[in-house]
């Protein structure tokens, strides 16, 4: 990108222990966990603070994620405003069945929007006088195979900076510069022939727990955001356009796919709507030299299993422990194991997300596939062993 090429001001030089690229939940949480153990960091983000705090994303937290946020002092608002769920509903062939997580595995999940986690993290980091740079540009990394990798960027005023680090953490997503700076040795990818149309509606949820609905017309999900706001999704074609979906058409499709005798889907004003492609992506390794990748920079899962945010949290929890042991205590073993150990958990979540996706999403004209899906759904809802497998993976209590 030629940050320092040609005439221009000399960069402001700095020194820190960990340079973190990306102020999403993974980058901010990593900075927070490191700080609690005496490790300094800088977080740089191309977006504005306002964008980071308003961007709508997932919001279903595994029990382990909830426990971690509490343990590191970030649970106050989550405990006050989050909604604990003890299971989910699976709906198919005109029937709705409850999968009881508490009974099956003694665990729960919590609805608390990723947006709110980011707000909590930013507030906590700024209260600790953390070094966070929003609205940066020309972000680069270099010398990642040396013991002094360098993070370069221009701040919001256009001033160039050069930060010499011990380690750099790439938490900037699939399209960020970190993944490109450490080309993978191998990539596994699966693109699905459908997308999710998601809406945020100003209407109280019509259900006490999430409903995953299999329907010949396509999958639907009734999720929850707050006691006053509902989050709902529809399976649509992979190349569909949101312009094809006026509000009336969305509600009509949701009504058909959730239809159940004695139950009513309440409608309300749609505040936001968008279409998200579905894909599975895993790259290896998750490290090159002193550049470590976490979250979407290293792996993407379809949202059916609610694993994306939770996987990112698990990545940075493990990475924080490894970096503290290395940079504070001089023990690099956990850092050396980070990529391989993390990938084992990533593949477990990738498989579960793929399995949930294939069980619930329909393909027009595929009667054989439809029959297999209905057989699998009947098995999951009538076999305690099968239901336990789903509950273990969904709540995150399964070992990986």
Describe what you observe in this structure.
The structure is a single chain. With 400 residues, the chain is an alpha/beta fold. It folds into two domains: 12-59 and 114-185 and 285-352, FAD/NAD(P)-binding domain; 84-109 and 191-279 and 355-395, D-Amino Acid Oxidase, Chain A, domain 2. The chain has twelve helices and 21 strands. The chain has an eight-stranded mixed beta sheet with strand order 7-6-15-16-17-14-18-21. A six-stranded mixed beta sheet has the order 9-3-2-13-20-19. The chain has a four-stranded mixed beta sheet with strand order 1-12-11-10. Strand 11 (150-154) and strand 12 (160-164) form a beta hairpin. Helix 1 runs parallel beside helix 6 (114-127), helix 9 (308-327) packs antiparallel against helix 10 (333-360) and helix 11 packs across helix 12 (384-395). The longest helix has 28 residues, at 333-360. Mean pLDDT is 95; it is low at 1-6.
Overview in brief:
The protein has two domains: 12-59 and 114-185 and 285-352, FAD/NAD(P)-binding domain (3-Layer(bba) Sandwich), CATH 3.50.50; 84-109 and 191-279 and 355-395, 2-Layer Sandwich (D-Amino Acid Oxidase, Chain A, domain 2), CATH 3.30.9.10.
């Amino acid at each position: 990108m030629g940050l320092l090429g040609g005439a221009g001001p000399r960069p402001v030089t700095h020194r820190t222990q960990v340079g973190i690229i990306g102020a999403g939940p993974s980058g901010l949480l990593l900075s927070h966990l490191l700080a609690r153990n005496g490790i300094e960091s800088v977080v740089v983000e191309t977006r504005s603070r306002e964008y980071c705090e308003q961007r709508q994303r997932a919001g279903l937290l595994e029990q382990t994620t909830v426990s971690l946020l509490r343990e590191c002092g970030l649970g106050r608002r989550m405990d006050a405003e989050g909604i604990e769920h003890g299971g989910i509903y699976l709906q198919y062939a005109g029937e709705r069945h409850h999968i009881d997580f508490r009974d099956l595995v003694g665990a729960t999940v919590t609805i608390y929007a990723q947006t709110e986690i980011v707000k909590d993290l930013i507030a906590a980091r700024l209260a600790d006088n953390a070094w966070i740079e929003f609205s940066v540009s020309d972000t680069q990394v270099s010398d990642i195979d040396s013991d002094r990798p360098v993070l370069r960027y221009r701040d919001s005023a256009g001033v160039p900076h050069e930060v010499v680090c011990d380690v750099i953490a790439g938490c900037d997503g699939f399209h960020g510069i970190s993944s490109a700076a450490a080309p993978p040795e191998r990539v596994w990818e699966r693109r699905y022939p459908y997308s999710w149309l998601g809406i945020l509606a100003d209407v109280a949820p019509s259900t006490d727990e999430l409903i995953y609905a299999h329907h010949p017309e396509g999958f639907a999900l009734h999720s929850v955001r707050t006691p006053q706001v509902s989050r709902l999704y529809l399976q649509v074609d992979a190349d569909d356009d949101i312009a094809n979906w006026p509000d009336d058409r969305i509600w009509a499709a949701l009504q058909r796919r959730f239809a159940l005798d004695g139950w009513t889907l309440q409608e309300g004003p749609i505040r936001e709507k968008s279409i998200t492609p579905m894909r599975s992506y895993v790259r290896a390794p998750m490290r090159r030299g002193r550049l470590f990748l976490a979250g979407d920079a290293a792996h993407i899962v379809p949202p059916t299993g609610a694993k994306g945010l939770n996987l990112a949290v698990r990545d940075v929890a493990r990475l924080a422990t490894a970096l503290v042991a290395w940079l504070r205590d001089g023990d690099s073993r956990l850092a050396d194991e980070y990529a391989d150990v993390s990938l084992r958990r990533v593949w477990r979540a990738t498989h579960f997300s793929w399995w949930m996706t294939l069980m619930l999403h329909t393909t027009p004209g595929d009667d054989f596939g439809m029959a297999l899906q209905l057989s699998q759904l009947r098995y999951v809802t009538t076999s305690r062993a099968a239901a336990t497998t789903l509950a273990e993976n969904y709540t995150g209590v399964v070992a990986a």
